Amino acid sequence: MTEQLPEIVDGLPNVCGSEDRVQAAVKKHAGERIYLEKSGVDFDRIDSACAIALHMHQPLIPAGGDDLHNAEIISNLQHMMAHQDIGDNHNAPVFHWCYKRMGEFIPQLIGEGKQPRAALDYSGTLLYGLCKMGLHDVFDALGPLAADPAHVHAAEWLGTAWGHAVAPSTAVQDFRLHVQAWQHHFAAIFGFDAVARVRGFSPPEMALPNHPDVAYEFVKTLKDCGFQWVLVQEHSVEQPDNGWGPQEKHLPHRLVCRNSHGETAEIIAVIKTQGSDTKLVAQMQPYYEAQGLGRLELAGKKVPPLVTQIADGENGGVMMNEFPPKYMDVVRKCSGSRTPVVNVSEYLEYLFSLGIEEKDLPALQPVHQTRLWEHVQPGDGHEKLEKAIEKLRQQDHEFHMEGGSWTNDISWVKGYDELLQPMDEISALFYEKVIEAGVPTTEDRYRRALYHLMVCETSCFRYWGQGVWVDYGRELCRRAREILEHEF
Q1: Average pLDDT of the chain?
Q2: Which DSSP helix (H) or strand (E) runs through 118?
Q3: Between β-strands 118-122 and 155-159, what pairing exists: parallel, antiparallel or unpaired?
């Protein structure tokens, strides 16, 4: 029996030190069918299917006290709980329930003989924050969805970046650390077998890098960490031959990323279609859309299309109030029907069981790369690539290499100099003092530095972009710098 990792080490989340053991667990069952055998869905008889994913996140903030420089780093949920008279903080108790309620809904529906499905995306900062708050009821509810053989086929956990860092504007070596830390932390909470079942990846803010070198490293990180597929936003990808958006958006594709050195990395991409995310999932719109679809041809086979959506699992009145009855109603209605709700990995396992291979899937690449590759070629080198990017920027103000995310109107770079500069400095300092110096990941000072690096790279400090959130971000950077300069 494999020894369980501790969840907490010296008061911090267990995010490093046993990387080899975690990766060994992840890769031990790579390529095996782990969902289809227990599925119960007769894929040969269905017309179409839908999949939903719930994204859960709360940042860690220096708000456990009145003095910003000395305040304890706590979950934003804890801050909301303590100040329910301010703004929307009165929603904090409902958020608490939202974080555990799928652990109530899914077993209930399985007990009724139904076929519930849901994908779960929990950031590392949220998981640690819940633990730090002593909300063990959340983990009691979620535990069976991660480890109980009677339930694991119904809830598909998705990997993500531990600190909810956005890939387009986070140093590639840091983003890899976030991904590895999430796997490490998840294994410590739910076990090695649980992390081995995590096949899909949910990028924070649905942010996909489109700079060729960053996109390549993003995909390479996911593949190196054992992920099989990634969720992508419809408008963040394009067809390589013509620059158009995906034509068959309800079928899986290959995300193919080439860099300036001529290297290629690719991974299966599952497309999240556009729309008002929270309302679509809360009202189970993917099910109703799927009902109007029929089988499509893929690699010479007729296969059911899959309508896929992800949304915040706790934010907004529609998700807090309307989702529970709607989810229960739809699952009861569609179980055993010709349009069931399924999870992406069991769907992919079905396609592979037909003899379809990854190479048979149509190719996609990050948005705007078709135009870029008209001016420079993979293998021309980084300098020529940057010159081509700058030339296109001057010709067209809408051209950018800042990636794509939930919406087209949010840049994760422009207007964030107040935070990006100190974040970049911390990233460079961590690389110099820790990575280049070869500090072992088992050392306590490594864990402290990594924890503070990841916390300060959380997207929320940039998303809000002003006021106290910028103050939070800059203070976390200050603390990270202090650790790096005095402990290394």
Answers
A1: 93
A2: strand 118-122
A3: parallel
